[in-house]
Every structure is written in structure tokens, then in C-alpha cells.
């Protein structure tokens, strides 16, 4: 009997050893075989041109969906912007990345971004991003946001009276940029006068389109122009910072009047204050993140409301009830914003179909497995908003404009991600919600409109915009 047990245990040990050996052997030798399926494209540039050009043609989702169909609906391998990369797709991909932030992955920006913002190599590092995230809530916390509503409405009124009223036709996109940039300049750096705002906006326009580009620094390339523009803006910001420091010292400026004052007067846990260039870089990043995204969203709201009269009617009805409840000259407030439920559902559906950010990159901190494939340490990982937003598994009839998707508890977790998710989720989400709703209020209260180019092309570079700036014919409501 004893011999039987000894044989049984020996047999068991042999089987387990064999299994372990097999697993170990497979792990050692098979690493490259178990990379996600896909191709790496041309030497050096990889598949960057396909990646960028599907966007220029207005269909950034095509790059993703073609490869999801060919290789795997969860993850595929590619080579983007000079880096080996894996694209994670679908709700499971989003969940994995958002839940493993700073554990298996960390934020990563393409070289083009790091070169346009020389110190953003630090800014995008874990510690700098944490510092920034610690500081932002003070500026973007609910009490602060509630104070901004009146300021935003006041600027919206000035914007509509100078840019839209008494005009038969307008080009919407430049106006939306002007609107969101005016608000950001006022709230971030207290620059409010239209001529000063316009002076600052000019280089920003150049900067945005060179940011996510092939980093070729030759005269005339978008990348080269972006570097020059960022230097010009940094100079302007440093000049404002220097003056602000004097004003703060003389009591002419308040430490809480805007985000710039806040950054200049807040020290870190070691009592250290940020230097001028650091403050300038952080504000530059915020101005970019905080105005281009929202201006693209506002532009597409105008586009969809022109195309869908019944949706326009719903928004108009809701906004006029609010407008009619106000005393003459009374600015919008927090309660009014809470009543804009249908309008926000409409804005959410616009952000689903025309997300301002197409996705973002991460870097693998160590080798790990995802969906049965190995992701080597140092690889870049891209998550794509469209891989869920336009995926019939996540949204039925994904191309249909349907704001009721956001009724009740709304879309399933990790499917609706225009603001990202996890620890790096957009800290400006609520700020963006306010400026978008205040824009919608002021717009539909004044006008109906129709598109002047029926099938205007959309270009995504890096945000979606109508190629001709969305010219519309305006019809003012009768007083
Ligand atoms: C419709 C408007 C907006 C959209 C769609 C949007 C979208 C996003 C997304 C998707 C991310 C996450 C990127 C990632 O996963 O790496 C992000 C991050 C960020 N957003 Fe926004 N955003 C908007 C408006 C704003 C505004 C108004 C601000 C500032 C007031 C802002 C500031 C930031 C910052 C600082 C980050 C980086 C957070 C970090 O890395 O920890 N965004 N945004």
C-alpha cells in the first residue's frame, strides 16, 4: 500500500514538474510569439501615416476598426509616432488601462508633444502630474465652479453680441474657439479684454495642429511652427506672471483670483514654490486642454442641432423655460444648470459621436499580459474613444443620434469615455459641462440656423473640425 502511495505521489510530482517546465519553457521562448497580432508597418514611421491620415480624412475610427476586424477586437500591435505600440480596444481594454494607472501603465506623450513643451517631460512624469492634480481641484472644485457660472454667462453674452448678433451668416468654429478661449483666459489668467484675448489666441491655433504630428523640425512643417508658437505663448505668459507677482506683492491682485495666482502662491509639501517657467508651462497645458476640446464640442453641437430639428426643439424648449424664469439682466446660476438635463444629454451624444479627444497613450511600466497577449515593458499603449463609442456591442445603432441613451443610469461602465477614466480622468469635465451648457443656452435663446454646406467634410487633426469651419445662416428669434 505504502509503495502505491509513494508511486502516486511520484507520478503527481512528475506531472506537476512537467507542467511547470512546459510553462516556464513556453514563457522564456515564446515572448515574441505571444505579442498581440498586427503589423508594424514601414521602418521608423511604422503605421503613423495611416493613423494620422484616417483622421485627416475624417474617419479616425477606421484605423481602429479595420485592425479590430483583421486581428482582434481586444488588442492589436502597431508602430505609432516612432514607438512600438499596442492598441487596447473595447470596454475591457478601457477598464484594464484605467484600473492599472501607475501600476502597470503610466501616462505617455508622443515625442512631438514633449518637444513642443520642453519641460513637459517633467510635466508628464508621475510626480508632476500628481502635483498638478493636487492643485487643480482647488480651482475646479464645486464651490469654485459655481462661482464661474455667472462669469461664463457674462462672457457668453459679450461673445454673442460681438460675434453673432446682427449677422446673417457666421463661421462657427472660429467663433467657438474665441468663446472657450475667452473664458479660459479670464478664469485662468484674468485676461478679459477682447484685443488681448485675440492676441493670445493666434499662436494657440498654430500650436494645436502641430502637437500630434510627425516630429520633423524643418522650416514650414506643422511641428516646427508649433515649437515657435509655444515659445511665443510662453513668453507672453511669463510677462503676465512677472506683472502678477508685482501686483500680488502690492496687494493689487488676489491669491484666489485665478489659477495663475493660485499656482504662484501655493507651495508644495516642502514649502517650495513653482518657478515662473513651470507655472507658464502648466498654464499653457491647461489653456490647450481646456479650450480646444470644448470649442470642438460646441462646434459639433451647432452642427447636429442644424441637422436634427426635433432635437433642436427639445433643447430650445428647455432653455426657454429657464430664460423665461429669469429677471431681465439676471445671470445664469447653479440651479439653472441643474435644469438643463435634456441639453446635457444632447451634448453627451455629441461627445459620443464627435469626441474631441480620440484617445491617449500610456507606457507599460513592466511586461504584463492582456487578453492572452504579452505587452513588453516600455511599449506604448493607445486607448481609443471610438473603439467603444462607435462599437455596436457598446451602443446599439451606434451611428444614430439618440440622446435618450443617457437617460437613467446611462451607458454601461467603460463604454462612454469622452473624458477618459480612472485616476487620469479629465479634471476639467465639470468646467467643460458648464461652458458647453452656457453656450447652448445663449445660442438657442437667440437663433435658429441652417448649414450653408450640406455635406461639409470633417477633418480630425487632432480634434474633429468641419473643414470649412461650419458656415451657417442665422435666423434670429423675434423679440
Ligand atoms: C469637452 C471638453 C473636454 C474633453 C472631451 C476632455 C477630454 C479629456 C480626456 C479624454 C483626458 C484623459 C486623457 C488620458 O487618458 O490621458 C483629459 C485629461 C485632462 N484634461 Fe480634459 N477634456 C476636456 C476639457 C478640459 C478642460 C476644460 C480642462 C481644464 C480646465 C481640461 C484639463 C485636462 C487635464 C489637465 C488633463 C490631464 C489629466 C492628467 O493627466 O492627470 N480638460 N481630458
From TrEMBL:
The protein's required cofactors: heme
InterPro entries documented for this protein: Cyt_P450 (IPR001128), Cyt_P450_CS (IPR017972), Cyt_P450_E_grp-I (IPR002401), Cyt_P450_sf (IPR036396)
Keyword Zinc: no
Pfam families hit by this protein: p450
Membrane spanning residue stretches: 6-25
Gene3D superfamilies reported in the protein's UniProt record: Cytochrome P450
Subcellular localization, as worded in the UniProt entry: Membrane
GO molecular function, one term: oxidoreductase activity, acting on paired donors, with incorporation or reduction of molecular oxygen, reduced flavin or flavoprotein as one donor, and incorporation of one atom of oxygen
Cellular component aspect of the GO annotation: membrane
Membrane topology: Single-pass membrane protein
Family designation: Belongs to the cytochrome P450 family.
This protein's name: Cytochrome P450
Organism this protein belongs to: Cinchona calisaya
